[in-house]
Amino acid sequence: MYEQIDAYVTRLVEESTPERTAWNIEKLRQGKSASWNYIDGCMATALLSLAELTGESRYFDFTERLIDHFILPDGGIRTYDEAKYNLDDVNEGRVLFELYDKTGKEKYKKAAGVLRGQLARQPRTAEGSFWHKKIYPEQVWLDGIYMAQPFYALYETRFGAGDCSDTLRQLETVHERMRDAETGLYYHGYDASRSAFWADPATGCSKSFWLRSIGWYAVALADLAEILPPEQGRGRVRELLRELAADVSRFADAESGMYWQVVDRGGCPGNYLETSGSCMLAYAMLKGARLGALEQEYAAKGEKTFHGILKRNLSLAGGTLELDGICLVAGLGPESDRRRDGTYEYYISEPVVRNDAKGVAPFLLCYTEIKRLTS
Question: Does 1.50.10.10 match the CATH number of domain 2-374?
Answer without folding.
Answer: yes
